[in-house]
Fold this protein.
Amino acid sequence: MMAELNTVIPTYSARRVVSAERSGSSCPVVVATDAGYFFTKLRGAAQGPSALVAEIIVAGLAEALGLWVPSRVLIAIEPDLKSDVQEDEFMDLLTASHGINLGFQYLQEGHDIGINEIATIHEEVACAVLWLDLLVMNVDRTVHNLNMMRSHHILWVIDHGAALPFQYNWPSVREDSPRHTPDAMEHHIFWNRLKNLDRWDEQLAAKLSRSVLQSVVSQVPDCFLQPLMSPPVSAAMIERRRQAYAAFLWKRLKSPRPFMAR
């Protein structure tokens, strides 16, 4: 596992929407920019900016652990953006997504991992993916959504918008909330590797220092956090919310980690 942790997310302007993925609720699109094509998740989709926040944070954590994740960019969508997709419902979604959205490295010749390929994934990688998903409470890596791709012989972990579910109800977050893990994790595609996590637990946790968490949450742009808060929203409020994500994850990382006590 060799990926590097990105520290800056660049911004590019979308020039044209070239295609849209109609399956799933996020309805991502492929956009053309001056820097090439990017697979882009839209802020106007059902989960809103919260899913984009989760994507950025979890991708950063995955890279820190040494997993491969498509690099991220911010994609600016203007009202006059040209689109090769013209269906009314899609155009409404595009209108709701004016502003900054989240783009991902377009994986050339990539294909979604199939169930028959699971057994070929190296034990170290499988355990790292399971450990990460337990940390961020990502219940969306199951037989129905493996959310992994292979491109140029590299395994990429993708689609982390369902992680960090606590962010949808901040008022319910209590001091002990980070110490719980959803029961739905038992449906994880690598759940049968749980017994092997002890071998990797300390090694993986050591890679997620406070400074790494700070670096990861600092990548979340203000424009993704501001709509999630009740107005009026100040810069100080946005920073407190950003730090709340780091604090929650830091408490989950405290030994003994709650997702290891099973």
